[in-house]
Amino acid sequence: MEKQDRTVPSGVQFSLRHNIGSLTSFLEDNADVRARFLAQFTKPEFRVKAPLLAPHRTKDHSLAGTAFDYLLRFYIQKLNPAAKTSAWVAEAALDDLCASSDAATCKKATTLFEQAKQRHRQFLRSSQRRPPRDLIESSVDLAYLDVIFRAGIVDPRIFKRPRKALVDDLECMLALVRPRFFRAEKRCILNPTFGTASELVGGADADLMVDNMLIDVKTSKHLRFDREIFNQVIGYYVLSCIGGVCNWRRAKIKHLAVYYARYGLLHRIPVANCLTGGSMLTFLGWFRRRARLDY
Predict the structure, then answer these.
(1) What is the rounded CA–CA span in Å between residue 253 and residue 71?
(2) Which positions of the chain have pLDDT values less than 70?
């Protein structure tokens, strides 16, 4: 492949080439995989009604979602000091950006990243219960870096102070988080991966695991648990059966959950209620073979 000049022009978006798969794209792109999931797993009914407590304040929905993922991770780490953590995706994005841009752009991005790390450390050492506003602002900076890694896009707004409406939006969702949902008794894993099974689908990481419950976080205004969302969380369960969770080979996920951040609502379902199809061993063997066709 011909090498392209990927220097960042001032104030202009540019694209980095990435080829990143995911469990989500594996499911979305393959009708036969969705059909097999439909036959193997039963989605429980969802009849939950609740008021929207934190409506969107900006149109940057995706950016707000990524920033909130960081914020919730910081908060849960404060609740669970022994939580197993992993490197931030933003760090890999920073390396990518610095390798592909001019020195001035790299320096600006590095300054933002180091500032986020410092604010994160200060929060963990402080007596504050929830991330303060400066760390909320840094979560937006990290979200911009995330986009570089996951989508290959550099947005020049990364070097501007986050808009007040976006920071307010994140602060409102943060205020709804209930500690009892996320305080672990034995084990807490932030952004868990699934060993070799993650590689089967080109890379996969979930949002968090608290004891034996795997949790996916949604920041949409819609309170729904459709087949697409169900396939995603049950897909993480499938990957855990194949590759374990973060080198924890004997991991046993007993509950799947979705946390609706704009409602302050945690919806939990027992895995046992979903396994009403044929043999799981047969299904796992098929899943391995089918995933290898794509990745």
Answers:
(1) 24
(2) 1-21, 249-250
What per-residue confidence (pLDDT) applies to 156?
75
For residues 214 and 204, give the distance between their C-alpha atoms in angstroms, rounded to a whole number: 14
Q: Find, among 113, 295, 72, the residue nearest to 204 by Cα.
A: 295
38 in Cβ contact with 228 (< 8 Å): no
Q: What pLDDT, on a 0 to 100 scale, did the predictor assign at position 21?
A: 54
What pLDDT sits at residue 249? 67
**Secondary structure class of 239 (helix, strand, coil):** helix
What is the identity of the amino acid at 9? P
Assign residue 195 a region (left: φ > 0; alpha: ψ between -120 and 50; beta: otherwise).
Answer: left
Confirm whether pTM is higher than 0.85.
Answer: yes
Q: What is the pLDDT of residues 59-108, one digit of tens each?
A: 999 999 999 999 999 999 999 999 999 889 899 889 988 888 889 889 99
HEC string of 147-207 equals HHHHHCEECHHHHCCCCHHHHHHHHHHHHCCCHHHHCCCCCEEECCECCHHHHHCCCCECC
Residue 15: strand, helix, or coil? strand
Residues 6+ apart with CB under 8 A from 245: 189, 192, 193, 194, 195, 209, 251, 253
SS3 labels along 93-137: HHHHHHHHCCHHHHHHHHHHHHHHHHHHHHHHHCCCCCCCHHHHH
Separation CA 43–CA 50 (nearest Å): 20
Residue spans per domain, the chain: 59-175, 184-294
User: How far, in Å, CA of 51 to CA of 145, rounded?
Assistant: 33
